[in-house]
Structure formats: C-alpha cells, structure tokens
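Sequence in, structure out. Go.
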Amino acid sequence: MAEYAEIVRDIQQGKYAPVYFLQGDEPFFIDNIIEHIENNALDDAQKSFNQYVLYGKEIDFAQILTAARKYPMMGERQVVIVKEAQELRGWNKEENQQLLMAYLENPLASTILVFGYKYKTLDKRTKVGKSLEKHAVFLHSKKIYDNQVPSWIQSYSSARQVKLTSKAVMLLAENIGNNLQRLSNEIEKLLLNVKDGQEIDERIVHKYVGISKEYNTFELQHALSSKNMAKAIKIVNYFASNPSNNPLILTIFNLFSYFSKLLLVHQSSSKDKNTISKAIGVHPFFAEEYVRASSHYSLPVVLRNIEFIHDADLRSKGINGNVRPDGELLKELVFKLMT
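Output:
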C-alpha cells in the first residue's frame, strides 16, 4: 500500500504508474493526487486529445476499460480519470470484476488509469481488492487524528515553502480542526496575502482567515485553562450570536479534544513539557498550558467533563431530548465544565 507523500513525490518527478486506486474517508488526499496527475501528466496541448475525466454515475466498467485501452493521439500517453468511482454500479458483479482484473494484469503502458473511490473502501480480501492492491498504486486515505493536525499544517506549509509560527499553527488547528480541504484553502489564502518569505503569525491568521482575535476556540481554551468564567461566557455569547462562523458541532468537537488532551496529561507519568507535547500532539510552548490546566481539572473532573460534552453532543443532535437552541446549550455546557 502506497503512502500519499510517496505518490505525490513520484508524480512530481514524472514517475507514473499504469493504474491508481485511491480510496478512503479523507477526500483531500484523493482529490490532491488526482489534481497532481491532471495538472502534470500532460501538457495543455495534449489534454484536449488525451485526457478523459469520467464520473462513476454516468459510465460502466466496459466504457472505462475501452477508454483505457485506447492509444493516445499524437502523444506518448493518455490519462483516464474516474471520479466518484464509488458510485460506479456493479463493483460486486463477477463479470465486472473479471474485466477489471484482466486489465490490471495487462494494463496499457501508455495509459494512466485513476480511480477516485471516496468515502468508502473496497474489501481487500476480495479477488478484485487483492488484484488492485497487487497491480495498482493503492492508497487508503484515512482521516487524520486531531493531535496530528498541527503537524499536518506544518508539513503542508513547508511543502508550499512558507513558515507559520507555532501560535498561527495552533490557531488554525483549534478553530478549523481536521478539515484538510478547508485548512489547505486557508493556507493558500494566506499565501496570497503575504510577501514571499514572510513568516505568518497569528495576527495574519486573524486578519485573513476570519477568526476573531478575541472570540475564538483558541481563546475559549485559554479561558478554560485559567478558569476565567467571565471571559469564557463572553466568548460563548459571541459564538451564540455568530452561529454560522462558529457552528456548535465544531465547538463541541474542540472541547472534547481539549479535555481528551487533559486526560492524556493526567495519564502521563512525566509532566515534562517535551514529553507532554509528544503525548498530546502540540508544540512544547502550548504543552505548559495543558500541564497548568491539569491542576485546575482533576482526573475525576476531566472524566466528568467528557461525559458532559458527550451528552451535549447527543442533545445537539436531538438524541437525548430536551432540545434547546445551540447558544443556550453551549452556555450551559461551558458553565458545567468550569464548576
């Protein structure tokens, strides 16, 4: 099974495989690899003759493989991209599997065939799954965990040759979460608004990403860490009055992430900031704040608060009854977390 970075590196070096099968829950990696192939495999003059973008709902296996077996016109290669391949009918039919496996065993060297199979996965224990894993560049695109987001931001920014301060990274991570497409879009927006080589700090993020300087998830966590009830309520009131920019589901997710990190702090045998930073996936500068916060929230209180957050999540979805406006639910939750 191939890794995302390895696939992109090979494409950038002009190394292409005959078949790519890109599947999984995280669409960013799938879309990004397809975009790299679309943009780099053929020059602009060749694309109109030799690049085909097909959609799973509109075609069948026979049409895909007929296109793949064509020879390029006035060029050395052609590209056949099947987007939304999870919508392609007949994946479980024996005749379609046989057609695909026959092609995989003897693909046309001048064709780059790409399947974008998003939000689902093929069972690799099946014949066709085994064949794809053996003969194609096979990517299983997984959602990254919350504690991996800061590292992903730094890695993406480094690849785009821009440096973000630690505070800027954490501001993006805590307020956007693991939505990689939105994160990449926001980083690209930042690049358009800074000079070449300029370091991006939290002030630039506040200005161009649309995150309020005073009222954001990052500042709410600061208020929680220091048990500053007055500041926390001000931020929650702001969230309640601006729900489109501060959706409750994202705030609840970030609160769960915050207290989950505190749980890891309590479970750690060492309170050294470097040890804690590795355990919870934040910069050592921010690890100190989590250590301080753990003194305000004992282990039983952290466990209790995680239960409060879980209950609020269910109520926000109408599962536990007692439906209330999002703003009121959030105010109640934050008050319970801090008392």
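Check: The two ends are 49 Å apart (CA to CA). Strands lie at 19-24, 51-55, 78-83, 111-118, 137-141.
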